[in-house]
Amino acid sequence: MKAIVLKQPGGTAELKYVLLDTPSIRSNEVLIRVKSISINPVDVKTRSGRGLYSRLTGEDPLILGWDISGIVIETGDAVTGLTVGDEVFGMVNFPGHGRAYAEYVAAPADHLALKPAGISHEEAAASTLAALTAWQAIIHHAKVKAGQRVLIHAAAGGVGHFAVQIAKHAGAWVAGTSSAANRDLVMSLGVDQHIDYHSVPFEEAVSNIDFVLDTIGGENIDRSLLVTKKGGTVISIPTGLNESVTQKANAAGINGYSILVRSSGSDMKGLAKMLSDKELIAHVSRIFLFDEMAEAHKQVESGHTAGKVIVNL
Asked: Which residues pair with 88 in a beta bridge?
C-alpha cells in the first residue's frame, strides 16, 4: 500500500512516500480502505518534532495522522456491530500511533462510528479530532447546560466551528471570535454574538461567561479569565497539560484546565447523530490529493484556515 512516513522531524520534505505491506488486524480491529484524511495542527507539530513526536519516536515506520473516513474491508474475530462494506469514520488511537497517512488503516472498532449516509467522506473525516475535542470539552468536561453563556475563541477554526454548533445544541447562548473575513461563516453556525477580534478586545464585548473554550493560548487565557464568572470554567486546548491554566483560574475563583482529546467510539456516535440530523455541519475549506500532503501541511501551518483541511486518496 501507499503510505507517508516520517523518518525524522523537520519540514514538509521529511514526509516520505513509500510502499508498505497492508497492515494485519487484531481481533478487536477492522481494516479500513481510507477515502479521506483530516489534517490537524497536531499533525504539523508532530512532524516538526513537537506535538506527540516524543511519544512516537520508537515507531518504525512512523506514520502520522489520526483522522479517517473510509470503508471496512476486514473485521477482527471479536468485532461486533461493524461488517465488511460499512462506511465508517473516527479518530484512531489518539494520542498514540494512528497511522492514518496510508491507503489502509487498522483501527480499533470502538474508535469508530458508522458514517451517516448523507455525509461525504470529506465531511466525515473533518468531523473527528477537532469535533471530538469540542464535544469532550463541552459535553464531558464543562458539562454546558441550556441557558449558560459560552465564549468560543477562533470560532471559524477547526475546533471552534464545531464547538459553536455543539454548544448551541446544548442550549447555550454563544459568542464567537473571528476576523471580519470569517464573520459570515461564524454567524451561519448560529452564534448569538460575533466578535471581530481585530476591531474590539473581546473582554470589552462580553462578560459574565459560564464557559470559555480557548483554542489560542498565551495571553488569551489571562484575558479569558477576565470575562468568566466566579465558578465558571475556562478550558485551554493549546497549552497541553500546562498546569498554569489551573493555577491562574483557581486564583480567580474559576475552574480552569487543559484537556487532551481521546479516541472514543461512543463520542463519535454522538457526533454522527448530530451530523445525520443536520445539527452539525463540517466546514471543509480545502481538499488536497494524497500526493499533495506537503501542501496540506503548509495550509494548516499557516494558521489561517477556516474549518478543516482534507486529503483524499
From this structure: 70, 114
Q: How far apart are CA 280 and CA 131, in angstroms?
A: 9
Q: What average pLDDT score do residues 72-79 get?
A: 98
- The mean per-residue pLDDT over the stretch 252-278 comes to 96
CB atoms within 10 A of CB 246: 18
Q: Which residues contact 261 (CB under 8 A, 6 or more apart)?
A: 91, 94, 95, 129, 132, 133, 136
Of 231, 257, 261, residue with least CA distance to 244: 257
- For residue 56, count other CB atoms closer than 10 A to its CB: 18
Cβ atoms of residues 159 and 134 within 8 Å: yes
CA-based torsion, 32, 38, 39, 41: positive or negative: negative
pTM: predicted TM-score of the whole model, two decimal places: 0.96
Report the alpha-carbon distance of residue 26 to residue 210 in Å, rounded. 44
Helical packing angle, 158-169 and 265-276, nearest 10°? 70
Q: Which residues are CB-neighbours of 54 under 8 A, at least 6 positions away?
A: none
pLDDT value at 159 more than 80: yes
Query: Which of 14-28, 108-122, 240-254, 275-289 shows the lowest per-residue confidence on average (mean pLDDT)?
Result: 240-254
Query: What interhelical angle do 244-251 and 219-227 show, nearest 10?
Result: 30
Q: Residue 163: enclosing H or E segment and its boundaries? A: helix 158-169
Q: Which residues pair with 71 in a beta bridge?
A: 33, 87
Contact 303, 50 (CB under 8 A): no
Looking at every residue in the chain, the average pLDDT score rounds to 96
45: burial class by Cβ within 10 Å (0-12, 13-18, 19+)?
Answer: middle
Per-residue pLDDT of 197-217, as tens digits, reads 999 999 999 999 999 999 888
